[in-house]
Amino acid sequence: MTDLNKLTLSEARKGLKSKKFTPTDLVQSCLDRIKSFDKKLNAFVTLCDEEALKQAKTADISLPLGGIPIAIKDNYLTKGIRTTASSLVLDEYIAQYDATVMKKLKNAGAIIIGKTNLDAWAHGSSTETSDYGPTLNPWNTDHLPGGSSGGSAAAIAADETIISVGSETAGSIRQPAAWCGVVGFKPTYGRVSRYGIIAMKSSTDSPGPLCKTVDDAATLLEIMSGHDPYDATSIEEDSWKKPEIRQNLNGLKIGIPLSYFPSQIQPEVKKSILEAAETLKKLGAQILELPDVLDPKYSIAVYTILQRSEVSSNLARFDGIRYGHDRSFFGTEAKRRIMLGTYSLSAGYYDAYYLKAQKVRTLICQDFDKQFQKVDAIIGPVSPTTALKLGATKGQAMFGELQDMLVEPSSIAGLPGISIPCGFDKTALPIGFQIIAPQKREDLVYQIAKIFEDNTDYHTKRPKL
Amino acid sequence: MSDNLITDSVFEHTARLSRLEIKPDETNIKNQLIETVKYVEVLDELNTSDVSPTFQVNHKSNILREDKVEASLSQELALSQAEKVSSGYFKTTATIDKNK
Lengths: 465, 100
Prior knowledge:
The structure holds two protein chains of two kinds. By secondary structure, chain A is of the alpha/beta class. Chain A has an eleven-stranded mixed β-sheet with strand order 1-3-2-4-6-5-10-11-9-7-8. Chain A has a single domain, classed as Alpha-Beta Complex (Amidase signature (AS) enzymes), CATH 3.90.1300.10. In chain B, 14% of the residues are buried. Chain B has a domain of 43 residues: Histone, subunit A (Orthogonal Bundle), CATH 1.10.20. A two-stranded antiparallel sheet of chain B has the order 1-2. Chain B is mainly α. Chain B is flat. Chain B contains three helices and two strands; from the N terminus they run αααββ. Classes of the chains: A alpha/beta, B mainly alpha.
């Protein structure tokens, strides 16, 4: 049995159930792929090969993810497994408990094959700031995979795993998914528990899946979601459930914010997004231009202040006393962010920066409320460009913020969104578009994404390694 | 807001508050802070005098639970990742000078 690693989740489950292959075959196939290509791609920080093969032998395939290999972003605490957040501060840290999401995935039968690379502490949109070196984009290894969940996105694109999970604070699922040509589903803030995910910007951190298809991502979201008393901001609802698939989009209004097409947008990206809109129109949706959506430049500023502020607070706990190394192990990027956060929260500056940003956040939320009076969902580019080259982040104090300008507004407002493949540029780098809906309306996001995917074949394309 | 707020002494004070040592090859951080602070001034374009802040997007507050003891990490597991332990405790550097 060859190329089992290339299967989607639903294909792998079908094969396991009909006994065409065993969980061991499936895990071994992914591990072989990793061994062949990951020295170059560097999608994984830690491999769990022995333990994964051991678990495969006793896997219960009647469970929803029974016997399925999963790659976990290395900011999820995984009991007994090294968890670094791609920072040398945690180089030797062995997690003492499982994140709530990790427990849910394990209970569903998933087999951890390894922990994936990220920008150190998830600070970035390139995976270039990892203390373990950058992950390379499987479509072209001179290019970045995006980030911060770049390792998970690259592992999916390179078929090194069947499914993966990441986390998004402002673009960290959607942007690497777009740059690597895979599906990334960012849930409503509070839909998936943050407990046991190393905190970055607690007021927007949203764990979610990165997969090969919309349906696979939705299956994972069903398993990952649900109220968790250990996360005080967790939504008090049971697990999210996939809605019925729509046969068409009749009666649905979809908006395109004109401000999501900034002057620096790559023409091929713009063209692909407009073509995606045309496809949705053919499927029955009414497409409306939204001329008065708040300029994303304000979201960049709000995000920058709030992210740095929350980071300076969240990273204060890393003192080298209870776990990890001391603060001299922080990299330059983390130091820069902690410094700005400390500054914006300190006496004399709090009102001018932190409080002002929280007020503008209210305006951003109100702006979305206003737009969702006119339309059911919003679509737009995920990133203004396709994957940039290695080194693009060097010396750029705000690389991530500018790169993520089109995903920051929805993250700041806690909205659900998805990135799905919708084309390629002339150098064969993938392009993704995003679908955004009001809070808790993952059902709409899923339905639109699913019908688009069923009527296009971009998601079936894979890079030649 | 103005870019000359981050003077050398403000920068050093912020590093001290952050408990970070800025190495000689990282002094560029100061210029990047100035650059970032300058960028965020764009928010001054928006009038927020009558706007209340949104600290939390799902509008929750005061999530409480009953004061009941629940299972937690064992002492052994809790100490397992510390670099320095002593008699079942975390070992820290002294914060009080015993000679004073």
